[in-house]
């Protein structure tokens, strides 16, 4: 898909050089923690790359040019629609709900994959239980405070325990560039389901296709099953 790759201040050339040198300490020089992981996992170019496993690093994706930062103190996730008790959850409210951890790969439909990412957050079924889902609800719609990106799940998918409102990634609060303070993490599906900058969760009567789904990608984006578009790059 045609997401813009954002390199967030570190020139790709520099990262490639660091990757070629194979420096685990590269991230120290780069500074930012997430950049650390990006640097360490960037596959070296050239012949060396051919003999090493294809270790994908995260790309930062955003369909919008810039996204307003939300502070951890004032950020809210509003749960609304077909629920008994609509509520805007602060991070402190989320922290009082049961916490779920998952160690899973993160896989973009375009082919890059980051192995074994450590996620912490509130399993979506626990959040849904806290607001009480109305009997008419069939689906969940997610909105980003970037103002553009949306996603959806059937209610059955949303009740899986490997779907999180993630607040931590690899031992730290989810960074702004990775969609913090709160992002969705849908472990069994391709990365485009894992909406960043999560601001709204609405229970609806039917699935409303999300941003990429309106551009032709599968609503059911299971990794390893029929997926993406027929002409999707691999
Ligand atoms: N709001 C928003 N969420 C998004 C996207 C986006 O462009 N905007 N891109 C999706 C895609 S295609 C992928 S692969 C992942 C990438 O997550 P990352 O930027 O943390 O690597 O975010 C997903 N969630
Ligand atoms: Mo993606």
Automatic annotation (TrEMBL):
Query: Which N-terminal stretch is annotated as signal sequence?
Result: none
Gene3D superfamilies tied to this protein? Oxidoreductase, molybdopterin-binding domain
Q: What keywords is this UniProt entry annotated with?
A: Membrane, Transmembrane, Transmembrane helix
- Oxidoreductase molybdopterin-binding domain residues are 68-212
Q: Mind telling me which InterPro entries this protein's record contains?
A: OxRdtase_Mopterin-bd_dom, OxRdtase_Mopterin-bd_sf
Entry keyword Transferase: no
User: Transmembrane region positions?
Assistant: 12-34
The name on file for this protein is: Molybdopterin-dependent oxidoreductase
Q: What is the lineage of its organism?
A: Bacteria, Bacillati, Actinomycetota, Actinomycetes, Streptosporangiales
């Amino acid at each position: 898909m045609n997401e813009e790759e954002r390199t967030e201040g570190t020139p790709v050339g520099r990262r490639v050089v660091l990757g070629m040198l194979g420096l685990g300490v590269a991230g120290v020089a780069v500074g930012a923690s997430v950049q650390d992981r990006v640097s360490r996992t960037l596959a070296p170019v050239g012949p060396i790359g051919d003999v090493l496993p294809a270790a994908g690093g995260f790309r930062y994706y955003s369909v919008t040019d810039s996204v307003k930062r939300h502070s951890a103190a004032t950020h809210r996730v509003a749960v609304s629609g077909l629920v008994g008790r609509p509520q805007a959850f602060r991070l402190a409210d989320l922290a009082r709900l049961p916490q779920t951890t998952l160690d899973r790969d993160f896989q973009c439909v375009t082919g890059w994959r980051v192995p074994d990412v450590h996620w912490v957050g509130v399993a979506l079924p626990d959040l849904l239980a806290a607001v009480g889902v109305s009997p008419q609800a069939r689906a969940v719609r997610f909105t980003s405070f970037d103002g553009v990106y949306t996603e959806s799940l059937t209610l059955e998918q949303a009740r899986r325990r490997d779907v999180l409102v993630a607040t931590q990634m690899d031992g730290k609060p989810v960074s702004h560039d990775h969609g913090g303070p709160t992002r969705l993490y849908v472990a069994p599906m391709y990365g485009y389901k894992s909406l960043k900058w999560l601001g709204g969760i609405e229970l609806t009567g039917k699935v409303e296709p999300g941003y990429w789904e309106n551009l032709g990608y599968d609503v059911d984006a299971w990794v390893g099953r029929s997926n993406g578009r027929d002409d999707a790059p691999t």
